[in-house]
Protein backbone atom coordinates (compact mmCIF):
# COMPACT_ATOMS: atom_id res chain seq x y z
CA UNK A 1 0.00 0.00 0.00
CA UNK A 2 1.41 3.41 -1.03
CA UNK A 3 0.72 6.62 0.88
CA UNK A 4 0.85 10.05 -0.71
CA UNK A 5 -1.02 13.37 -0.79
CA UNK A 6 -4.02 13.67 -3.06
CA UNK A 7 -3.73 15.50 -6.38
CA UNK A 8 -6.33 16.95 -8.73
CA UNK A 9 -5.68 14.16 -11.24
CA UNK A 10 -7.03 11.70 -8.63
CA UNK A 11 -10.58 13.09 -8.74
CA UNK A 12 -12.07 10.41 -11.07
CA UNK A 13 -10.69 7.55 -8.98
CA UNK A 14 -11.67 9.23 -5.70
CA UNK A 15 -15.23 9.57 -7.04
CA UNK A 16 -15.15 5.83 -7.74
CA UNK A 17 -14.02 5.12 -4.18
CA UNK A 18 -16.84 7.29 -2.83
CA UNK A 19 -19.37 5.34 -4.90
CA UNK A 20 -18.12 2.04 -3.45
CA UNK A 21 -18.30 3.41 0.09
CA UNK A 22 -21.78 4.80 -0.46
CA UNK A 23 -23.13 1.38 -1.37
CA UNK A 24 -22.09 0.19 2.09
CA UNK A 25 -22.58 3.29 4.25
CA UNK A 26 -25.75 4.70 2.63
CA UNK A 27 -25.04 8.26 3.80
CA UNK A 28 -26.50 10.05 0.79
CA UNK A 29 -23.02 11.32 -0.13
CA UNK A 30 -23.30 11.16 -3.91
CA UNK A 31 -20.26 12.93 -5.37
CA UNK A 32 -19.08 12.62 -8.95
CA UNK A 33 -15.72 13.77 -10.30
CA UNK A 34 -16.80 17.41 -10.61
CA UNK A 35 -18.24 17.39 -7.09
CA UNK A 36 -14.91 16.14 -5.78
CA UNK A 37 -13.00 18.88 -7.59
CA UNK A 38 -15.45 21.53 -6.41
CA UNK A 39 -14.98 20.38 -2.83
CA UNK A 40 -11.20 20.49 -3.10
CA UNK A 41 -11.43 24.08 -4.40
CA UNK A 42 -12.86 25.28 -1.08
CA UNK A 43 -10.93 27.79 0.98
CA UNK A 44 -8.69 26.12 3.56
CA UNK A 45 -8.00 22.94 1.58
CA UNK A 46 -4.42 22.36 0.45
CA UNK A 47 -4.06 19.03 -1.35
CA UNK A 48 -0.27 18.94 -1.12
CA UNK A 49 0.01 20.05 2.50
CA UNK A 50 -3.26 18.92 4.05
CA UNK A 51 -4.20 15.50 2.65
CA UNK A 52 -3.05 11.90 2.62
CA UNK A 53 -4.25 8.87 0.70
CA UNK A 54 -3.57 5.14 0.51
CA UNK A 55 -3.32 3.31 -2.81
CA UNK A 56 -3.49 -0.38 -3.69
CA UNK A 57 -2.15 -0.54 -7.22
CA UNK A 58 -3.82 2.12 -9.36
CA UNK A 59 -6.83 2.62 -7.05
CA UNK A 60 -7.23 4.68 -3.87
CA UNK A 61 -8.49 2.72 -0.87
CA UNK A 62 -8.47 5.48 1.76
CA UNK A 63 -7.91 9.20 2.16
CA UNK A 64 -8.18 12.04 4.64
CA UNK A 65 -8.55 15.76 3.99
CA UNK A 66 -8.03 18.49 6.59
CA UNK A 67 -9.61 21.89 6.04
CA UNK A 68 -8.48 25.01 7.88
CA UNK A 69 -10.92 27.79 8.66
CA UNK A 70 -10.35 31.39 7.71
CA UNK A 71 -10.56 32.72 11.25
CA UNK A 72 -9.64 31.67 14.78
CA UNK A 73 -12.21 33.47 16.89
CA UNK A 74 -11.27 32.46 19.52
CA UNK A 75 -10.70 28.80 18.57
CA UNK A 76 -9.33 27.58 15.26
CA UNK A 77 -11.52 24.70 14.13
CA UNK A 78 -10.20 22.42 11.41
CA UNK A 79 -12.55 19.91 9.79
CA UNK A 80 -11.68 16.40 8.76
CA UNK A 81 -13.02 14.22 5.94
CA UNK A 82 -12.08 10.52 6.23
CA UNK A 83 -13.01 7.88 3.65
CA UNK A 84 -11.94 4.21 3.72
CA UNK A 85 -12.90 1.42 1.31
CA UNK A 86 -15.03 -1.17 3.18
CA UNK A 87 -12.47 -3.90 2.45
CA UNK A 88 -9.66 -1.85 4.01
CA UNK A 89 -11.28 -0.65 7.25
CA UNK A 90 -8.65 -2.22 9.44
CA UNK A 91 -7.54 -0.66 12.73
CA UNK A 92 -4.09 -0.04 11.25
CA UNK A 93 -5.31 1.88 8.20
CA UNK A 94 -7.82 3.99 10.15
CA UNK A 95 -5.34 4.75 12.94
CA UNK A 96 -2.71 5.77 10.36
CA UNK A 97 -5.19 8.21 8.79
CA UNK A 98 -6.28 9.74 12.09
CA UNK A 99 -2.73 10.01 13.42
CA UNK A 100 -1.70 11.70 10.18
CA UNK A 101 -4.61 14.12 10.45
CA UNK A 102 -3.62 15.08 13.97
CA UNK A 103 -0.05 15.83 12.94
CA UNK A 104 -1.12 17.65 9.77
CA UNK A 105 -3.68 19.74 11.61
CA UNK A 106 -1.18 20.76 14.28
CA UNK A 107 1.37 21.78 11.66
CA UNK A 108 -1.09 23.73 9.52
CA UNK A 109 -2.50 25.39 12.62
CA UNK A 110 0.94 26.59 13.71
CA UNK A 111 1.48 28.08 10.26
CA UNK A 112 -1.85 29.96 10.26
CA UNK A 113 -2.92 30.66 13.82
CA UNK A 114 -0.08 29.64 16.12
CA UNK A 115 -0.78 30.58 19.73
CA UNK A 116 -4.57 30.15 19.52
CA UNK A 117 -6.55 27.08 20.68
CA UNK A 118 -7.10 24.36 18.09
CA UNK A 119 -9.92 21.84 17.70
CA UNK A 120 -10.25 19.14 15.06
CA UNK A 121 -13.82 18.31 13.99
CA UNK A 122 -15.38 15.41 12.12
CA UNK A 123 -18.91 14.23 11.47
CA UNK A 124 -20.25 10.70 11.11
CA UNK A 125 -23.47 9.35 9.67
CA UNK A 126 -25.50 6.90 11.75
CA UNK A 127 -24.38 4.08 9.42
CA UNK A 128 -20.68 4.93 9.87
CA UNK A 129 -20.26 3.17 13.16
CA UNK A 130 -16.78 2.06 12.12
CA UNK A 131 -15.60 5.67 11.93
CA UNK A 132 -17.44 6.88 15.04
CA UNK A 133 -15.83 4.15 17.13
CA UNK A 134 -12.40 4.91 15.67
CA UNK A 135 -12.82 8.58 16.57
CA UNK A 136 -13.85 7.58 20.10
CA UNK A 137 -10.69 5.48 20.41
CA UNK A 138 -8.59 8.40 19.14
CA UNK A 139 -9.86 10.65 21.93
CA UNK A 140 -12.57 12.60 20.09
CA UNK A 141 -15.66 13.59 22.06
CA UNK A 142 -19.18 13.31 20.71
CA UNK A 143 -20.26 16.92 21.05
CA UNK A 144 -23.55 17.20 19.19
CA UNK A 145 -26.16 15.20 17.31
CA UNK A 146 -28.13 16.02 14.18
CA UNK A 147 -31.27 14.61 12.64
CA UNK A 148 -31.84 14.45 8.93
CA UNK A 149 -35.55 15.14 8.42
CA UNK A 150 -37.75 15.22 5.35
CA UNK A 151 -41.24 16.31 4.51
CA UNK A 152 -43.38 14.62 1.88
CA UNK A 153 -44.61 17.68 -0.01
CA UNK A 154 -47.39 15.72 -1.68
CA UNK A 155 -48.99 15.28 1.74
CA UNK A 156 -47.86 18.11 3.96
CA UNK A 157 -46.93 21.24 2.00
CA UNK A 158 -49.27 24.26 2.32
CA UNK A 159 -51.10 24.62 -0.97
CA UNK A 160 -51.90 28.32 -0.83
CA UNK A 161 -48.96 30.62 0.00
CA UNK A 162 -51.28 33.60 0.37
CA UNK A 163 -53.70 31.86 2.70
CA UNK A 164 -53.96 32.25 6.43
CA UNK A 165 -54.58 29.50 8.96
CA UNK A 166 -54.81 26.53 6.58
CA UNK A 167 -51.99 27.57 4.26
CA UNK A 168 -48.70 29.38 4.63
CA UNK A 169 -48.92 32.23 7.15
CA UNK A 170 -49.76 35.73 6.01
CA UNK A 171 -46.65 37.91 5.85
CA UNK A 172 -46.09 40.28 8.79
CA UNK A 173 -47.04 43.90 8.03
CA UNK A 174 -44.22 45.95 6.58
CA UNK A 175 -42.40 42.97 5.03
CA UNK A 176 -42.02 41.46 1.59
CA UNK A 177 -41.01 37.92 0.68
CA UNK A 178 -38.87 37.48 -2.45
CA UNK A 179 -36.72 34.77 -4.04
CA UNK A 180 -32.97 35.35 -4.03
CA UNK A 181 -31.47 37.46 -6.81
CA UNK A 182 -27.85 38.40 -7.42
CA UNK A 183 -28.50 41.94 -6.26
CA UNK A 184 -29.20 40.55 -2.77
CA UNK A 185 -25.88 38.72 -2.46
CA UNK A 186 -23.77 41.25 -0.51
CA UNK A 187 -26.70 42.21 1.73
CA UNK A 188 -27.41 38.54 2.46
CA UNK A 189 -23.78 37.79 3.38
CA UNK A 190 -23.72 40.78 5.73
CA UNK A 191 -26.99 39.62 7.33
CA UNK A 192 -25.67 36.07 7.73
CA UNK A 193 -22.48 37.25 9.43
CA UNK A 194 -24.40 39.56 11.76
CA UNK A 195 -27.00 36.94 12.68
CA UNK A 196 -24.39 34.32 13.56
CA UNK A 197 -21.80 36.65 15.10
CA UNK A 198 -22.53 35.46 18.64
CA UNK A 199 -23.08 31.78 17.88
CA UNK A 200 -20.44 29.50 19.47
CA UNK A 201 -18.17 28.08 16.80
CA UNK A 202 -19.34 30.46 14.07
CA UNK A 203 -16.90 32.74 12.24
CA UNK A 204 -17.58 35.40 9.59
CA UNK A 205 -17.65 34.11 6.03
CA UNK A 206 -15.58 35.96 3.48
CA UNK A 207 -17.13 36.88 0.11
CA UNK A 208 -14.96 34.25 -1.61
CA UNK A 209 -16.02 31.43 0.71
CA UNK A 210 -19.65 32.57 0.62
CA UNK A 211 -19.73 32.44 -3.16
CA UNK A 212 -17.94 29.10 -3.36
CA UNK A 213 -19.98 27.38 -0.66
CA UNK A 214 -23.38 29.06 -0.92
CA UNK A 215 -24.72 31.40 -3.59
CA UNK A 216 -22.14 30.50 -6.24
CA UNK A 217 -22.46 26.76 -5.75
CA UNK A 218 -23.82 24.80 -8.73
CA UNK A 219 -26.32 23.20 -6.35
CA UNK A 220 -27.77 26.48 -5.08
CA UNK A 221 -31.38 27.06 -6.15
CA UNK A 222 -32.08 30.83 -6.06
CA UNK A 223 -35.70 30.48 -7.18
CA UNK A 224 -36.42 28.23 -4.19
CA UNK A 225 -34.45 30.37 -1.71
CA UNK A 226 -36.53 33.00 0.07
CA UNK A 227 -35.67 36.29 1.77
CA UNK A 228 -38.03 38.17 4.06
CA UNK A 229 -37.19 41.84 3.58
CA UNK A 230 -38.26 45.09 5.16
CA UNK A 231 -40.76 46.98 3.02
CA UNK A 232 -38.02 49.22 1.58
CA UNK A 233 -35.87 46.19 0.71
CA UNK A 234 -32.89 47.45 2.68
CA UNK A 235 -32.88 44.87 5.47
CA UNK A 236 -33.02 41.09 5.48
CA UNK A 237 -35.12 40.01 8.45
CA UNK A 238 -35.08 36.26 7.83
CA UNK A 239 -33.85 33.96 5.07
CA UNK A 240 -33.93 30.33 3.97
CA UNK A 241 -31.56 29.10 1.27
CA UNK A 242 -32.00 25.88 -0.68
CA UNK A 243 -29.88 23.49 -2.73
CA UNK A 244 -30.64 20.47 -4.86
CA UNK A 245 -28.33 17.46 -4.99
CA UNK A 246 -30.47 14.69 -6.43
CA UNK A 247 -30.66 14.01 -10.14
CA UNK A 248 -33.69 15.62 -11.79
CA UNK A 249 -34.80 12.22 -13.07
CA UNK A 250 -35.46 10.96 -9.54
CA UNK A 251 -38.09 12.17 -7.10
CA UNK A 252 -36.77 15.66 -6.61
CA UNK A 253 -35.45 16.69 -3.20
CA UNK A 254 -34.97 20.29 -2.14
CA UNK A 255 -32.43 20.60 0.64
CA UNK A 256 -33.15 23.48 3.01
CA UNK A 257 -29.53 24.23 3.72
CA UNK A 258 -29.10 27.61 5.42
CA UNK A 259 -31.45 29.75 7.48
CA UNK A 260 -31.25 32.70 9.81
CA UNK A 261 -33.43 35.26 11.56
CA UNK A 262 -32.28 38.61 12.88
CA UNK A 263 -31.69 38.11 16.59
CA UNK A 264 -33.86 41.01 17.76
CA UNK A 265 -36.81 39.48 15.86
CA UNK A 266 -36.73 35.99 17.36
CA UNK A 267 -40.03 34.71 18.68
CA UNK A 268 -42.21 36.57 16.17
CA UNK A 269 -42.88 33.65 13.84
CA UNK A 270 -40.77 34.97 10.96
CA UNK A 271 -38.95 31.70 10.39
CA UNK A 272 -42.21 29.72 10.43
CA UNK A 273 -43.59 32.11 7.82
CA UNK A 274 -40.59 31.81 5.52
CA UNK A 275 -40.29 28.06 6.06
CA UNK A 276 -43.90 27.26 5.22
CA UNK A 277 -43.88 29.54 2.18
CA UNK A 278 -40.74 27.73 1.02
CA UNK A 279 -42.55 24.39 1.31
CA UNK A 280 -45.48 25.65 -0.74
CA UNK A 281 -43.13 27.07 -3.38
CA UNK A 282 -41.15 23.82 -3.53
CA UNK A 283 -44.31 21.81 -4.09
CA UNK A 284 -45.42 24.17 -6.85
CA UNK A 285 -42.01 23.78 -8.52
CA UNK A 286 -42.27 20.00 -8.70
CA UNK A 287 -40.31 18.84 -5.66
CA UNK A 288 -41.49 15.72 -3.86
CA UNK A 289 -39.39 16.10 -0.71
CA UNK A 290 -38.06 18.93 1.45
CA UNK A 291 -34.98 17.79 3.37
CA UNK A 292 -33.05 19.40 6.23
CA UNK A 293 -30.45 18.49 8.85
CA UNK A 294 -31.51 19.75 12.27
CA UNK A 295 -29.26 20.33 15.27
CA UNK A 296 -30.64 18.24 18.13
CA UNK A 297 -30.23 21.17 20.54
CA UNK A 298 -32.13 23.59 18.30
CA UNK A 299 -35.13 24.99 20.19
CA UNK A 300 -37.48 24.41 17.26
CA UNK A 301 -36.25 20.84 16.88
CA UNK A 302 -36.77 20.01 20.54
CA UNK A 303 -40.15 21.76 20.53
CA UNK A 304 -41.60 19.63 17.73
CA UNK A 305 -41.83 22.46 15.18
CA UNK A 306 -40.74 20.32 12.24
CA UNK A 307 -42.82 17.30 13.22
CA UNK A 308 -45.95 19.45 13.28
CA UNK A 309 -45.25 20.33 9.66
CA UNK A 310 -44.95 16.67 8.71
CA UNK A 311 -41.17 16.17 8.97
CA UNK A 312 -39.88 12.72 9.88
CA UNK A 313 -36.34 11.66 10.80
CA UNK A 314 -34.65 9.42 8.23
CA UNK A 315 -30.95 9.75 9.13
CA UNK A 316 -28.74 10.84 12.01
CA UNK A 317 -25.34 12.49 12.28
CA UNK A 318 -22.90 12.98 15.12
CA UNK A 319 -20.36 15.76 15.50
CA UNK A 320 -16.98 14.77 16.99
CA UNK A 321 -14.30 17.13 18.34
CA UNK A 322 -10.72 16.74 19.52
CA UNK A 323 -8.85 19.44 21.45
CA UNK A 324 -5.34 19.74 20.01
CA UNK A 325 -4.34 22.91 21.81
CA UNK A 326 -1.42 21.22 23.55
CA UNK A 327 -0.69 18.99 20.55
CA UNK A 328 -1.65 15.78 22.34
CA UNK A 329 -5.43 15.54 21.93
CA UNK A 330 -6.09 15.24 25.67
CA UNK A 331 -9.38 13.46 26.25
CA UNK A 332 -10.22 15.61 29.27
CA UNK A 333 -9.83 18.93 27.46
CA UNK A 334 -12.89 21.14 27.35
CA UNK A 335 -14.58 21.20 23.97
CA UNK A 336 -17.31 23.74 23.41
CA UNK A 337 -20.61 22.21 22.23
CA UNK A 338 -21.37 23.56 18.79
CA UNK A 339 -22.31 22.49 15.34
CA UNK A 340 -19.92 20.89 12.92
CA UNK A 341 -20.10 22.10 9.28
CA UNK A 342 -22.74 20.70 7.14
CA UNK A 343 -22.24 17.95 4.38
SSE order and pairing:
Blueprint: E1 2-4, H1 11-25, H2 33-40, H3 47-50, E2 51-56, E3 59-67, E4 76-84, H4 91-113, E5 118-125, H5 129-137, E6 141-152, H6 153-156, E7 175-179, H7 185-195, H8 207-215, E8 226-230, E9 236-243, E10 253-261, H9 270-284, E11 289-295, H10 299-302, H11 305-308, E12 312-323
Parallel strand pairs: 4-5, 10-11
Antiparallel strand pairs: 1-2, 2-3, 3-4, 5-12, 6-11, 6-12, 7-8, 8-9, 9-10
What is the structure about, briefly put?
The chain is of the alpha+beta class. 31% of the residues lie in helices and 27% in strands. It has helices at residues 11-25, 33-40, 47-50, 91-113, 129-137, 153-156, 185-195, 207-215, 270-284, 299-302, 305-308, and strands at 2-4, 51-56, 59-67, 76-84, 118-125, 141-152, 175-179, 226-230, 236-243, 253-261, 289-295, 312-323.
